[in-house]
Amino acid sequence: MEKISKVLLSLRHQLHRPIDVALFSFVVSLFTAIAYHAPLMRAIIGGEGSWLIIGSFVVLLVVVNFFISYLLLYLGRMVGRVMMALLTVGNALALYFIDTYEVLLTRQMMGNVFNTRYSEASSYFGLDAALYLLILGVVPAIYILLRRADYGTLRRFALSVVTSVIVVVGVVAANMNSVLWVDRHATTVGSLVLPWSYVVNSVRQYNHMQMLNRKPIMLPEATIIDDERDVVVLVIGESARSANFSLYGYERETNPLLKGDSVVALRARASATYTTEGVKAILSHKRVKEYYEPLPDYLARAGVDVLWRTTNWGEPPLHAVERYHKARDIERLYPDVDAKYDEVHLAGLGQEIRRSAQAKQLIVLHTTTSHGPEYDKRYPATFRCFTPVCTTVEMSKADRRELINAYDNTILYTDYLLHSVIEVLRSVEGVRATMIYVSDHGESLGEDNLYMHGVPLDMAPREQTDIPFIVWTSDGAPLRDDLALVGHYHVFHSILGRLAIDSPIYDASRDIFACGE
Q1: What are the Cα distances from residue 61, in Å, to 64, 81, 197, 230?
Q2: Angle at CA 459, nearest 5°, toward 454 and 465?
Q3: pLDDT of residue 242
Q4: Rounded to 5 degrees, what angle do the CA atoms 181, 182, 184 make?
């Protein structure tokens, strides 16, 4: 006990003993480079970076972080310390996610973070997260806040800043021959530099969302060309990859119900690897950077009865859709339903179709069935057919067979949901009905040590881009046989065609029902 008291007194003495601010900044910078950048070094080595590149990145990490830390401490004083402490905690959390889920902190990934609700975010944390946060976040943050510093003269400050800039310029100049390597690996490398990856990309995502939240560019007027009764149910899947659907050749029977429903399973590829961009693409008429009026708003404005139900999030703003129902809204309308799982979408679905007074109807069901990491919590116990299942959120530590079992059960549950939608549509008389199921993106389950989704599209594995695109029609309408591969942008035009909507932007080449055109 006496020894512990002496250690604490010694530590207290050291904390109160002023340290030169430049040395303080260097210590923090060196700690940041060592503690948080092992994934970056692995990525550089894996990308066959030369020893010059590896050494240069180490120097840049230390010097740039020194430069920023020095500015924050010297100019910000206590405010600067608080900012540095917060960044240290942020680094610890970021490293936990990078190590555990093999994610890249791109702008898109930060968009996922900002669109994650507390109920989902809490599922990502386990004991390891607490240890990362405590050892690599809280402890160094306390040191930063309590360590006294000698700020020195303005001349010494200027000299340190100028020296840092000269070193950075010199290192960059020495690597001019490595420009092609840096350009090729810029996304990976840039997303692993802490804290600047998540700080810069958070700002980029904020600016991106500010642009998206502005009023959409209105599409040209559309017209309903007949008064036949039509309903299309668009089911947007979450994190479903076609590789685990038996309809696409998977060795396990994960689609026992759909295989008897006369559905057509088209080969499809996603236009994004994260929800917000994937759903936006599904509802868009073409790939554009600008924000155009999404399909539900466009059809509502044309006189189509539109209902949106969601147990998920991340869709673009819907300004013209009057009936936008979350799980709790559906539960309020139908008190007997269990809103815990995605079958809440089935509640009163037939009634919603029968009571519609309009000839054309679009119903969108935005599900969350295969969202990780807690796959085993996405379906009722009766669908736990493949066992044992993974129950940990730390996917990299899970038994891969158990992980796949849990995921396959979500596909089995999806099979039940889609079959149930088809059964409802079959029960409605006098209506030409269509169901289209398409996932927002795929999912990695440990292949190449990747988990979940969010890898930039140009470097994403097939597991995150190959998605199911399943179609059922009440009249057995034939689909085009000249489409080897479809995607998100086929949805918009296929629904226009199926609902007999005449529009200047209709593209028959992207309508899966446009046979002979």
Answers
A1: 6, 19, 12, 60
A2: 60
A3: 97
A4: 65
**Tokens 């139900």, residue located:** 309
Superfamily of structural domain 231-460+471-510: Alkaline Phosphatase, subunit A (3.40.720.10)
Pairwise CA distance, residues 108 & 88, whole Å: 22
Give the tens place of pLDDT for each residue, 312-348.
988 888 888 999 999 999 999 998 888 889 999 999 9
Phi, psi of 157 (to 5 degrees): -60, -50
242: Cβ–Cβ under 8 A, 6 or more apart, which residues? 248, 265, 267, 268, 442, 466, 467, 468
- Per-residue pLDDT of 373-396, as tens digits, reads 889 999 999 999 999 999 877 777
Does position 179 have pLDDT exceeding 70, yes or no? Answer: no
Helix (H, G, I), strand (E, B) or coil at 323: strand
Task: Name, in order, each residue with C-beta under 8 angstroms of 51's C-beta and a sequence gap of 6 or more.
Answer: none
Structure tokens at 364: 């969108």
User: Domain map of the chain by residue range?
Assistant: 2-212, 231-460+471-510
In three-state form (DSSP H/G/I as H, E/B as E, the rest C), the secondary structure along 386-412 is CCCCCCCCCHHHCCHHHHHHHHHHHHH
404 or 156: whose pLDDT is higher?
Answer: 404
DSSP string computed for 429-453: TT-EEEEEEEES---EESGGG-EES
**DSSP letter (8 states) at residue 262:** T
- Which residues are paired to 364 by β-bridges? 234, 308
Give the C-alpha distances (Å, rounded to integers) separating 343 from 169, 340, 353, 415, 418.
59, 8, 17, 11, 10
Q: Is residue 117 scored above 90 in pLDDT?
A: no
pLDDT of residue 421 exceeding 90, the answer is yes
Kindly report the backbone phi and psi dihedral angles of residue 445, in degrees, each rounded to the nearest multiple of 5, phi listed first. Answer: -125, 40
Angle between helices 196-212 and 107-114 (to 10 degrees): 70
**For the chain, what is the radius of gyration of the CA atoms?**
27
- Residue 496 pLDDT greater than 90, yes or no: yes
For the chain, report the end-to-end CA distance as a whole number of angstroms.
86
Q: How does the average pLDDT of the chain come out, rounded?
A: 86
Which amino acid is it at 223? T
**pTM, two decimal places:** 0.71
Residue 364's closest CA among 414, 305, 430, 411?
305
Alpha carbon distance 343, 353 (integer Å):
17
